[in-house]
Amino acid sequence: MTRLALAFDLGGTELRGALVESGGGVVAQVSAPTMAIAGSDAVIGQIIALAGALLTQRPQADVAGIGIGAPGPLDPKAGIVIAPPTLAGWHDVPLIDILGKHFGLPVRLENDANAAALGEWRFGAGRGSGSLVFVTVSTGIGGGVVADGHIYHGRRGLAAEIGHMTITGEGDRCFCGAVGCFEAVASGTALGRRATALTTPGDGSLLRRLSADGDVSARHVVEAARADDISALELIEAEAKWLGIGFTNLLHLYSPDLIVMGGGLANGFDLLAPTIRATVEQRAMPAYRDVPIVPAQLGDRAGLIGAASLILWEGEPGAPLAMAQDEDNKDGATECAGARETSHG
């Protein structure tokens, strides 16, 4: 019988669960709107209910354990979700202990962006590579780094906070309070904000017609650009330049085998790619210019597949207990680790 893992991708809007096999195949999948304002007990109850629904679909499943991708900050080693901004009432919730006691199975926890990076590295666009940087461009910008076959967590689990690289001294203020963050100028939200400012309700533009005269989103910009709308194409050009600048920084910092772009804006990757590549060619040092920049392959399954691999591939490269992490708490410090801000992705 095939070994399976229960995998969960816990988001502030949607909770998704799946049964995943060791080869990365999703054999059953369920979802529900996250009861984000109802507190941790309610959401944990949802996880348990979705697990029951999955096991009802596959009553003979040989389940090896449970892998969870969740918004940060969290401590993947201790299994504690610290205080994610999109989940009300979550304060130092020992999620691994709670679910482990309920199911009697091993449970592993990882930051959601890291889980998606791991999924793409094992089974998606990064399969066969030694290292990659995964960048999710959607509401915000987040990502994860696989370095020499391991998720890189860094000191206190805070590595690869790529959405908050400062890449300009101007522009709108980021939610973190700073000006010039990568996320503030290059996220899908930023693209939609620029498109909304460029147009006005009732102006007859394709962008406003697609948005029904409401705020224009990045999805509307991509759709209009595919129809050869001049304003949308100019917005895509500007967006791709910002992404190219950010990706150049990531190439210089991490020297990966490739960069993988996921998130909602990756649906327009073919439109963005030429200017992204031209910007990298212009700005990167010569040794970095040939690194492939490719779209993610797993879509919204990346986080589920990556979370499952925490169980199914434990002890292999990429497993949470084999982290490429600074082990500098040698003086006995055991403070909880922070991780990603949940707006990413």
UniProtKB/TrEMBL annotation:
<dbReference type="InterPro" id="IPR000600">
    <property type="entry name" value="ROK"/>
</dbReference>
<dbReference type="GO" id="GO:0016301">
    <property type="term" value="F:kinase activity"/>
</dbReference>
<keyword id="KW-0808">Transferase</keyword>
<dbReference type="Pfam" id="PF00480">
    <property type="entry name" value="ROK"/>
</dbReference>
<protein>
    <submittedName>
        <fullName>Glucokinase</fullName>
    </submittedName>
</protein>
<feature type="region of interest" description="Disordered">
    <location>
        <begin position="324"/>
        <end position="345"/>
    </location>
</feature>
<dbReference type="InterPro" id="IPR049874">
    <property type="entry name" value="ROK_cs"/>
</dbReference>
<dbReference type="InterPro" id="IPR043129">
    <property type="entry name" value="ATPase_NBD"/>
</dbReference>
<keyword id="KW-0418">Kinase</keyword>
<comment type="similarity">
    <text>Belongs to the ROK (NagC/XylR) family.</text>
</comment>
